[in-house]
Design brief:
Blueprint lengths: L6 H4 L12 H9 L3 H29 L3 H27 L5 H11 L8 H25 L15 H23 L6 H15 L8 H7 L13 H22 L7 H6 L17
Length: 281
């Protein structure tokens, strides 16, 4: 769930003749970050995000028996945590925290070299998955739960898959649309708020992130998902990402700033999904 923000300083206005004077300066700062540091930032950021999602879910169920209150607490914690993580780690890695965001950044920039390279993509995705698993284990440890307990929460139903297509597609549309229109400075607040909204308007509570989905299979708590439900969720998320990219092409002028570069080269930070979602017990 997470994302892109450096466009804030580099993408010039959509209308107007004056380019942003910080455009190239910001790009130089971002590309100077060593590849290994970027990968570590993706792992740490995804771990922290999942720890927030899982940990706040456990805390909510211990403090209240009201499912609505539990979901409200979980969603608010995720919104705040995700926004902070994007601001903090965006300058290092772009704050993707989400394989579909990284995949979309590679896909949109593969022809002109403005996106992630295939080698970077191959490093980001395993780091995000490892980080998500670590975050779930850490959250369980903080609440004296078994470190690894496969979730028994089945989420295998067509309406949940549709929700994941919608949640992931709109997340990709938001991230790359902000970059394409020169509004990426709004990414931390916009992405976090959209994820918070999607908790409530989707029946799946908006996982919208394959890495986070895998990580949440390792915890049998409020935010968990049964391992048998994971493949269908990830398939729906990939379909949603493709639909989201299609909408970006349909809705936004391709002559505006390249979304791939702004997502990858974040100097103040994308998506995750993020994201990246919670769940009903």
């Amino acid at each position: 769930m997470g994302v892109l923000l450096g466009a804030a300083r580099r993408a010039g206005p959509v209308v107007g003749p004056a380019p942003d004077p910080d455009r190239h300066r910001g790009r130089q700062v971002s590309t100077a970050v060593p590849p290994a540091r970027r990968v570590v930032a993706e792992a740490v950021g995804t771990a922290a995000l999942v720890a927030v999602v899982v940990g706040s879910g456990i805390q909510a169920t211990e403090l209240s028996r009201d499912v609505g209150v539990q979901l409200l607490a979980n969603s608010l914690s995720t919104v705040f945590g995700l926004g902070v993580l994007i601001v903090l780690l965006g300058p290092v890695s772009g704050a993707h925290f989400n394989p579909v965001v990284s995949l979309a950044a590679w896909w949109t920039g593969r022809r002109d070299g403005d996106g992630l390279s295939l080698r970077q993509l191959a490093a980001y995705v395993p780091a995000q998955i490892a980080g998500a698993i670590t975050g779930a284990v850490l959250a369980d440890a903080m609440f004296a739960r078994p470190l690894v307990a496969w979730s028994t929460h089945e989420r295998f139903a067509p309406h949940l898959w549709i929700s994941e297509v919608v949640a992931t597609g709109t997340l990709i549309l938001l991230i790359f649309g902000l970059a394409r229109t020169g509004h990426a400075r709004l990414a931390p607040a916009a992405v976090a708020c959209w994820i918070g909204a999607a908790y409530w308007f989707t029946s799946s509570t908006s996982f919208a992130n394959p890495a986070v989905t895998i990580g949440r299979a390792f915890t049998d708590t409020f935010a968990g998902i049964a391992p048998t439900s994971v493949p269908a969720f990830i398939t729906a998320q990939l379909l949603g990402a493709a639909a989201g990219l299609g909408l970006v092409v349909l809705l936004f002028d391709p002559l505006l700033p390249s979304p791939a570069r702004e997502v990858v080269d974040a100097a103040v930070p994308a998506a995750s999904f993020a994201e990246q979602g919670s769940s009903r017990p």
